[in-house]
Structures are given as C-alpha cells and as structure tokens.
Amino acid sequence: MFKQILLPINLEESDIAGRAIAVAEDFAEKYGAGLTALTAIPDFNSSMVASFFPDDAIKKAHAEVCVDMKKFIDSHFRNPAKVHCSVGEGSTRKVIIDYVKKHHIDLVVIPARKRDIGRILLGSNSAYVVDHAPCSVMVIRP
After folding, report:
1. Residue 19's domain spans which residues?
2. Using one digit for the tens of pLDDT, what is the confidence trace for 81-103?
3. Engineered SS bond to 106: which of 2, 41, 78, 85, CB 3.0-4.6 Å?
4. Starting at the edge strand that comes first in sequence, how are the strands of the sheet with 136-140 ordered?
C-alpha cells in the first residue's frame, strides 16, 4: 500500500514528534516502506538579505542541521539505520510538498501542534500539506 513515507520534523519543536514517529515507524514496518525524516532550514529569500551573510552560510547551516537531525534520529527512532535523513531549504510547507513530488511519497505522517488563535488565523504547515500534497496525509495530534 505504501512504499515511501515522509515524516517532517521541526527540530525546534521536536517534543511534538513522538507520536508521529511511532506511527510512521509502524506503517513503514507493516508495509515494508522506506521512511524519510525531513526538516527544513530557511533560505535567503532575496539577494539583498543574502549579502549580509558569508557565501558559505547556507552550506554550513545545512551541514550543522544534518548532524543535529542524525542525532535526533539516533535517539528517537527504534530503527535509526532504516531512516533516511533529508534537509531542505526554504519554507517548511514548500520543502515538504516539493519533496513529496520529487520522491514519489505515498504517505506523509505529520505532527500537529495544539491549536491556538495564531494558527487558526494564519494556517499551519500541516493544513497546507493536507490541502496540497498529491498523496495521503496523516496528521498526528499531540
């Protein structure tokens, strides 16, 4: 049923990922699917902003987040060796949707935060992914 499962993780809010990790691992195991944990780092939206940073700032940030992500996977997943790690650049929602399309993801398992007025008015990444992903999306509430 599922061949490729994507689990987006915000390393700054990793405390909400526990249930989603368990669900994603269970589905991957049940269906023999690949499992990718994905996080996103911001990019420079304009050349003017980029001019304030060293040329290799994004490369360094990407490398550091990769290390952090691998540590997170090693400490939070039952079978870390079976989890592929990926770091994208840009807005979280765009990174997720682009990854889904590029890698033919069958299922996105995404943790959701508790609702607050800011999320209701501005929307959320999970709601955006549900609306725009060309595959099934499972939103795991805390």
Report:
1. 4-140
2. 999 999 999 899 999 999 999 99
3. 2
4. 83-89, 34-41, 4-8, 107-111, 136-140
Report the DSSP beta bridge partners of residue 41. 89
Q: Give me the number of domains the chain comprises.
A: 1
3-state secondary structure of 22: helix
Look up tokens 């996103």; give the residue: 40
Which DSSP category does 113 fall into? P
How far is residue 67's CA from residue 51's CA, in Å, rounded to a whole number? Answer: 26
What global pTM score does this model have?
0.88
Task: Return the HEC string of 17-75.
Answer: CHHHHHHHHHHHHHHCCEEEEEEEECCCCCHHHHCCCCCCHHHHHHHHHHHHHHHHHHH
- Convert the pLDDT of each residue in 44-59 to its tens digit: 665 666 667 777 877 8
